[in-house]
Specification:
Helix content is 15%, strand content 34%. Helix 3 crosses helix 4. It comes from Aspergillus tanneri.
Length: 382
């Protein structure tokens, strides 16, 4: 059984006090939450230079355990590793030849048990996201460990927005990873994900457009919106997977989740430069998810879609304001995709115009006073 866990162990925590044995051993165990475990690091490499938002995955060799499985670079934390940072850098270098990593976000920690001849082995894995800044040719310099990963098809450099959901799996290049293994890692670290959902039915698109054209609008400085209904819910859930994704992300039955909206929004040009520092939240509540899907045309910064500030859902407002090197993503959401964002993620409104998009919110509890937050977008009050 795999379980999500929280951890106070950072990348640069000294591991000497966590080792079970002081004798050097390749199968060194460490104490985690009072239990002797084998530790493992897993690094998802994000390309921010030549293909922003792309992620490197490796396909395990046919002769290795779990053949064909797609994974990040990583492996077991060894006796000589002074910190998790040292272990992560060592494993990435051994498996890909890449050095000079910049880590961001917080660790996603999972645990599981493996039956062995000498008893049950407890495992803990620390998954991190990292990037290689200032080395645009890093993908061409990858050298794979042939005994662990296959040559030729092993490197799947994929776009977040190319990740597709099918039968509970995320389609990535040459293989699949279970949603809970990969997508939840990505979602936890970035705070958002684009899910390939297929093109919506034309009748659902036309019905959403009809409702928008015939409904009274609430006009704001840079967008206007109207309340939607069942037609928007059908449009958002065209691929019949959004409910399952929302329920899994919020870790509760969909019937018990509180729903906000839906709403249909049209963005138009505001005053030049007005939104330069206008940060909002993707949802008024932290324990919540916002779903966006564009009507007719892809949505991007140039036609009104907001920027997304990765990992900012882990920060308080003060922490976010005091962060100097904020990681902003300008993404493209296709008409065959759904943008899923954790509540609490900071976004920046675009000064551009043109896109229409359908939104619905989902939260663990009623929003109550959250809706009065100055960081809440007005259409989330419908």
């Amino acid at each position: 059984m795999v379980t999500s866990m929280s951890s106070d162990i950072s990348l640069d925590t000294d591991l000497s006090g966590f080792r079970v044995s002081k004798l050097e051993s390749p199968s060194c165990q460490f104490i985690f939450q009072g239990i002797a475990c084998f530790w493992r690091v897993n690094v998802l490499l994000i390309d921010e230079d030549t293909s922003p938002g792309s992620m490197l995955l490796l396909k395990r060799s046919a002769s290795d355990s779990h053949p064909g499985c797609l994974e990040g670079a990583g492996g077991q934390v060894e006796y000589g590793d002074k910190t998790l940072l040292e272990a992560a850098e060592r494993e990435v270098n051994e498996e890909t030849g890449i050095t000079g990593l910049t880590f961001f976000g917080t660790a996603q920690t999972k645990s599981w048990d493996t039956p062995k001849a000498d008893g049950i082995h407890h495992w803990v894995q620390f998954t991190y996201m990292a990037t290689v800044y200032g080395q645009p040719d890093w993908k061409e310099r990858i050298h794979l460990a042939e005994d662990e990963h296959q040559i030729g098809v092993v490197v799947s450099l994929i776009s977040h927005r190319a990740l597709g959901m099918e039968h509970g799996n995320v389609s990535v290049g040459t293989g699949c990873l279970a949603f809970e293994f990969n997508a939840e890692h990505l979602m936890e670290h970035l705070g958002y994900m684009c899910i390939h959902d297929g093109e919506p039915q034309e009748e659902d698109v036309r019905e959403a457009e009809r409702v928008y054209n015939e409904s009274p609008k609430h006009r704001m400085e840079s967008f206007q919106y109207c309340k939607g209904g069942i037609e928007c819910e059908r449009f958002l859930n065209s691929g019949n997977q959004i409910r399952n994704i929302v329920a899994r992300l919020l870790n509760m039955g969909f019937q018990d989740i509180k729903k906000q909206g839906p709403a249909i929004i049209e963005f138009f040009t505001g005053t030049a430069g007005e939104h330069e520092e206008q940060f909002m939240r993707a949802h008024p509540s932290r324990e919540a998810v916002s779903i966006f899907r564009p009507l007719r045309e892809p949505a991007y910064w140039g036609n009104g879609l907001f920027k997304l500030y990765t990992s900012s859902h882990h920060q308080t407002e003060v922490q976010f304001r005091n962060t100097d090197n904020r990681d902003a993503h300008e993404i493209v959401v296709g008409t065959d995709e759904v943008l899923v964002i954790f509540g609490g993620l900071h976004i920046q409104l675009s000064p551009n115009s043109g896109t229409r998009i359908v939104w619905q919110g989902f939260s663990k509890r009623p929003m109550l006073d959250d809706i009065r937050s100055p960081l809440a977008l007005p259409f989330m009050k419908v």
